[in-house]
């Protein structure tokens, strides 16, 4: 199975600040069709995960442009600028290039 | 709007079978796939398997011997059955709309399942 390694595990932030979360995969996530199936989710306390970014850098409907994704191959980054209170929670990356699909262990974004 | 809702027992005895139902609305099961994802408390999610829009299935190899996913399109329902439950199967079980091998865009609220005697 593809191992997804997220860093850091915990990320203290001040409101209005900017943060980056890293997600590294144990194999390249470039599919034979040329797409890279790496996605980002936010899980707020007591809620289901919600899709933020799909296929590395595409914001899902309604996701503010403070969220941006980048990367290629095995190395990916989610950046959040101008952090707001509703951004707090646990962020997960997901790869759906290889079976079985696998998630990272999560990065908890919390207030300093 | 797109909605998914899981239902099923909250408590299952060890070695017994878990049966969950995902009832969907706002989209057709013959146009979109549905995946099941579970999450132990305080841990990352785990993809379990998928019911493709065409009726085919795909399973996580780690669970394949215990897991079965089926559907009733007339009732807009997808079913999960997993046998031989153990305590480490405890967690929240979600169904998600699955963009056919791409991303999971809509999720149900989840159902908490505890495996305990």
- Count of extended strands of chain B: 11
Gross morphology of chain B is globular
Topology pattern of chain B, helix = H, strand = E = EEEEEEEEEEE
User: What is the makeup of the main sheet of chain A?
Assistant: 7 strands, mixed
Low-confidence region ranges of chain B: none
How many helical elements of chain A? 0
What is the 3D shape of chain A?
Answer: globular
**Gyration radius over CA of chain B:** 13 Å
What's a quick, concise take on this entry?
The complex is a heterodimer of chains A (112) and B (117). By secondary structure, chain A is mostly beta strands. Chain A has strands at 4-7, 10-13, 19-25, 38-43, 50-54, 58-59, 67-72, 75-80, 89-95, 102-103, 107-111.
Could you walk me through the main structural features you see in this protein, from its secondary elements to its overall organization?
The complex is a heterodimer of chains A (112) and B (117). By secondary structure, chain A is mostly beta strands. Chain A contains no helices and eleven strands. In chain A, a hairpin with a 3-residue loop joins strand 5 (50-54) and strand 6 (58-59). Chain A is globular. The N and C termini of chain A lie far apart (35 Å). Chain B is mainly β. Chain B is 0% helix and 51% strand. Chain B is built from no helices and eleven strands. The interface between A and B is medium-sized, with 21 and 20 residues.
Helices and strands, with pairings:
The complex is a heterodimer of chains A (112) and B (117).
Chain A: E1 4-7, E2 10-13, E3 19-25, E4 38-43, E5 50-54, E6 58-59, E7 67-72, E8 75-80, E9 89-95, E10 102-103, E11 107-111
Parallel strand pairs in A: 2-11
Antiparallel strand pairs in A: 1-3, 3-8, 4-5, 4-9, 5-6, 7-8, 9-10, 9-11
Chain B: E1 3-7, E2 11-12, E3 18-25, E4 33-39, E5 46-51, E6 57-59, E7 67-72, E8 77-82, E9 91-98, E10 104-107, E11 111-115
